DNA sequence: TGAATGATTCAAGGATGATTGAAATATGGA
DNA sequence: TCCATATTTCAATCATCCTTGAATCATTCA
């Protein structure tokens, strides 16, 4: 993830509806969610969710694939991980004060680290 | 860092000039940089840098303090760390696929983790 | 006080982003 | 083929953000 992509990702996540969409898709996992289901959850019009989904897709944070009549959207884990990495490494130069809290979170969710730290 | 603050932080970082400012201030450390020095580095007008600095200050990512004639800006490490944490924990629900790359970065910059992982 | 320096504020503009509803596209089933 | 479903596209409007230059404020020093 380079600076250009990071700028686009930050812009994409700076809008409430879009942030909600990403959170829902991360929780939904690899199966993803259909545009209509997202629209219902987020409580916006089909037209509106389509606009924001296209915006997110263009930023690379989510991906789309047609499945019968529905279009299924999934979170693009690599990009999200890349954004976290960019923020810690490229933007913040790996400053311990900034990355320390991230290490705590990482320790709680990555199995390998649980072993070494607990 | 709650969602409202995160949205503001993402918006603040989605602009090239502002992202550059944050990067410069993180590298500058606790001593920070004066508005004029930042304007020179980033190559924008005093008026323009002032606009973006105010935007960043309002988002909580940087702080300002007058020192004689200059106004010194510093990166607010807590907020930046909070943003990384929000992205990993609140937004991405601690998904290993997303947090794993962050763990690598964290391992490289936090002294305690270097011992346990190398 | 008066001049110089460093920075902010203000107003005007142009550009970009968000929302809305109507129309269009694509798929699946009767 | 015809209809219903799922979603996107389009055009118009409104709001927000970015940029620019001139004017203003705060500080230091002669």
UniProtKB/TrEMBL annotation, chains A, B:
GO molecular function: DNA binding; DNA-binding transcription factor activity
InterPro entries according to UniProt: ArsR-like_HTH, HTH_ArsR_DNA-bd_dom, Metal_resp_trans_reg, WH-like_DNA-bd_sf, WH_DNA-bd_sf
HTH arsR-type domain: residues covered: 1-95
Pfam family, one: HTH_20
Gene3D superfamilies the UniProt entry points to: Winged helix-like DNA-binding domain superfamily/Winged helix DNA-binding domain
Superkingdom of the organism of origin: Bacteria
Database matches in PROSITE patterns: HTH_ARSR_2
Keywords (A to Z) from UniProt: DNA-binding, Transcription, Transcription regulation
Protein name: DNA-binding transcriptional regulator, ArsR family
Organism: Rhizobium lusitanum
């Amino acid at each position: 993830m380079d600076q250009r992509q990071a700028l686009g990702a930050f812009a994409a996540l700076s809008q409430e509806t879009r942030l909600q969409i990403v959170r829902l898709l991360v929780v939904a996992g690899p199966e993803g969610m259909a545009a209509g289901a997202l629209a219902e959850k987020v409580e916006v019009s089909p037209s509106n969710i389509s606009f924001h989904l296209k915006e997110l897709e263009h930023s690379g944070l989510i991906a789309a694939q047609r499945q019968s009549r529905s279009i299924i959207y999934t979170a693009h884990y690599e990009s999200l991980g890349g954004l976290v990495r960019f923020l810690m490494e490229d933007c913040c130069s790996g400053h311990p004060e900034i990355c320390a809290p991230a290490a705590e979170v990482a320790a709680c969710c990555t199995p390998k680290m649980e072993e070494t730290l607990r």
